[in-house]
């Protein structure tokens, strides 16, 4: 009897933990959703229950977001900048990580660690010299300003991550491909990259998410509203002095976060494999 009871207790404990974490992680989305459709009078009345609709739902906050702000333009800017940063990061990080992973001796590991250490430098120390560079290149107040600067911290982390992933691939596989007639580049494209899709996908998600969340560089390099990204446009234009447009703020955050959440959900297994295999093996 002790065995079945212990097994049942273990399953109940596991489900309790899973349900607890799921509730904790889903609550921000519930809070953003209910705040988006609440009337302003319902939001600011302290006597009302904040977890339910005490008045009929409204679309006023969504109308204000789409009609009175440049949210759609910010969303488009973020998408374009994110796609460009992801492309640049993959173009530079993938071959660099492969080369360092295959570099014999300690030089490859030491160079990889040195490159990763540049990722640890906080942006608050670099945005002033970076602004001088951006101004010198004539990119101030354009999307190119962040497209050029963001890879300075996405590439180092991606190289470090992919190095560990490439090292987990036996060199014998590449040697066998060379024996079969492939060139070194052909073996890399047709053999190494397909095996490393989990790590590459991790780099894509990390780089794109960073573009949507970064604030310091976007605020420093871009001043006009039509060129802003979501991470800067939302807090600047929906917080005016001590007035917070909570309904529109939550609507913008919900709309901006849902695509990333969906991508994480669909590719969760590959994302976890990219981080664990690339960082540990």
TrEMBL record:
Gene3D superfamilies hit by this protein: MetI-like (1.10.3720.10)
Membrane topology: Multi-pass membrane protein
Keywords: Cell membrane, Membrane, Transmembrane, Transmembrane helix, Transport
Annotated ABC transmembrane type-1 domain residues: 75-267
Subcellular location: Cell membrane
Keyword field contains Transmembrane helix: yes
Stored PROSITE patterns: ABC_TM1
Residues annotated as transmembrane: 12-31, 74-99, 111-130, 142-166, 187-211, 243-267
Record's protein name: Sugar ABC transporter permease
Gene source species: Anaeromyxobacter oryzae
